[in-house]
Design brief:
heterodimer, A: about 475 residues, alpha/beta, ten-stranded mixed β-sheet, three-stranded antiparallel β-sheet, 17 helices, about 15% strand, globular, B: about 45 residues, mainly beta, binds iron/sulfur cluster
């Protein structure tokens, strides 16, 4: 029996007439998945027990008893969150010219930058907004994001110092300007630090990430990683491209050896045309990605130390505990304009950093408009209203709430509209199949942070 | 639509796994989630 993810349509013939479950072949030797798409509830069932499981038993009983609760939690997650984070772009400028960057190059060369007073005023306004709806014991998050935030270092550090008790801060940096002093300041203030590195050697890493004159920056990033050894709040992002796919397992070895606590292996976002030629096809990306995940597992088994691949861990969490997910690209509507938004240096507000540079997606200005009005603006609504149910193909996809059909910016720019898929459908399918195989094999905890489920309650545990 | 061709290279468990496995945990959806660009986990201890 071989059932691709999309074999079943509503009322399809492979499931009982009244069964809510869609069979999904996860390419596991003994188990197959049954998924109820709308509630994101699923079971993994031995192939020889499929018919009787569909006819009745604990899986069906649990679903009947709890479907309404599960539907409510998905509704809450998808439609009733308020923003709790902002991607804060203090500068449009960058000292690098990476091949897949989503920010147009003329902006990165000579764009605007906030000074200290402007940045402090922006944080004050944001604080007022978040305090209006967030409970006092939860701090909103501000992530200084790029272009390259460390070009506005003095203003940003002044902001972190002044607002250290009112926000949780993070910074995503290319590491080239991260000297001893900067690291001491950021780690001393408990700031989350994200670095970027695309390969285990300079030859590979420098193919996609380089200065305007073509020089690579591998050595800078490695030095920063070494300086951050032992700091729990940092991670390294690798963008998977045709250039580094054959070296991904080697990169995982490199990160593990350097004691990087978590990394992300992200697909290339194809919002800007420059990225599209580099993205790699779905099969090449999934083969390399799954091999890299297997390598992290081998390393964990050999050393007892995990290198968590955070974007994959998020998919596992989306399957095991949908409301506990931490990244918001793989649920629809995605997090853009909904659980966070992005601020440009001139005050323009976008649903997500991914839209920066696309002028039609400016929803308003932080310095002149009310944020609540901006969230209701037409450009924001365009993103917030994008849901898998309205996308052809995704509307009948059983794993639609483990994928979310990212990314709206990519779909809009590359595929001609919000209600199109993005660039990587088949990759997302493979990722979910693999995650479910891990659960079928009882290996999934090895891919998650210890304590990932603190604060969650068990709603269903059959065979677990 | 793709029909999967994933190579099964993964280690398989030695003992037979339960015939039915289903796990669901739940918590308040706080929406602290971010996009793929930065991961901020729990507050780093100062
Ligand atoms: S899917 Fe795209 S727009 Fe949505 S949060 Fe992710 S990067 Fe941003
Ligand atoms: S993009 Fe995602 S939700 Fe849409 S059909 Fe593909 S796997 Fe399913």
């Amino acid at each position: 029996m071989s059932l691709p993810v999309h074999a079943q349509r509503e009322g399809g013939s492979d499931r009982g007439p009244s069964s809510p479950f869609h069979p999904v072949d996860i390419n596991h030797p003994t188990h197959i998945a049954l998924v109820e798409p709308d509630t994101a509830f699923w079971g993994l069932v031995a192939r020889d027990r499929l018919d009787e499981t569909l006819a009745g038993g604990p899986l069906l009983e649990t679903w009947r008893a709890k479907a309404a609760d599960f539907a409510r939690e998905m509704d809450m997650l998808r439609f009733h969150l308020k923003p709790s984070a902002v991607y804060f772009n203090a500068t449009e400028r960058c000292n690098l010219n990476c091949s897949y960057c989503y920010i147009p190059s003329d902006m990165r060369r000579g764009g605007t930058q906030m000074d200290r007073d402007r940045l402090l005023a922006a944080l004050e306004t944001l604080h007022g907004y978040f305090r209006g709806h967030m409970p006092a014991d939860r701090l909103p998050q501000v992530i200084f994001h790029g272009a390259e935030p460390m070009l506005a270092r003095d203003a940003i550090f002044a902001g972190i110092e002044a607002f250290k008790d009112r926000f949780r801060f993070g910074v995503q940096t290319n590491a080239t300007l991260l000297d001893e002093e900067a690291i001491a300041f950021l780690t001393g203030h408990g700031v989350g630090i994200g670095l970027s590195l695309d390969g285990p050697t300079a030859r590979i890493a420098d193919r996609t990430r380089q200065r305007w004159n073509g020089d690579g920056v591998f050595d800078h990033v490695v030095r920063a990683i070494e300086r951050l050894d032992g700091y729990p709040g940092f991670n390294v992002i690798c963008t998977m491209t045709e250039e580094n796919l054959p070296h991904l397992t080697q990169l995982v070895d490199f990160f593990h050896e350097k004691r990087v606590p978590a990394c992300m292996l992200n697909v290339t976002r194809c919002t800007q045309p420059g990225a599209r030629g580099l993205k790699g096809d779905d099969k090449a990306v999934s083969d390399a990605f799954l091999a890299a995940l297997e390598r992290t597992h081998t390393l964990y088994r050999e050393t007892g130390r995990k290198l968590v691949v955070a974007n994959f861990a998020n998919i596992l969490i989306a399957i095991l505990a949908p409301t506990a997910r931490r990244l918001m690209c793989d649920i629809s509507p995605c997090g853009g304009g909904r659980s966070f938004f992005a601020l440009a240096p001139d005050g323009a507000l976008f649903p997500c950093s991914e839209f920066i540079g696309l002028d039609t997606f400016v929803g308003g200005n932080l310095f002149t408009d009310r944020i609540d009005d901006v969230l209701e603006s037409a450009p924001f609504r365009k993103v917030i209203d994008r849901k898998v149910e309205d996308i052809e193909g995704c509307d009948v996809c059983p794993i639609r709430h483990f994928c979310g059909s990212p990314c709206p910016a990519e779909a809009h720019e590359m595929n001609g509209g919000m209600h199109r898929k993005g660039a990587f459908c088949a990759f997302y399918e493979e990722q979910v199949r693999y995650a479910m195989r891990l659960i079928a094999d009882g290996r999934h905890q090895d891919f998650l942070w210890d304590g990932w489920d603190e604060g969650t309650e068990v709603a269903c545990a059959i065979g677990a | 639509m793709s029909n999967s061709t994933t190579v099964k290279t993964e280690a398989q468990p030695e003992t037979r796994r339960p015939d039915v496995i289903a796990i669901r945990k739940t918590c308040d959806a706080e929406g602290t989630g971010l996009s793929h660009y930065v991961l901020m986990d729990k507050q780093v201890k100062r």
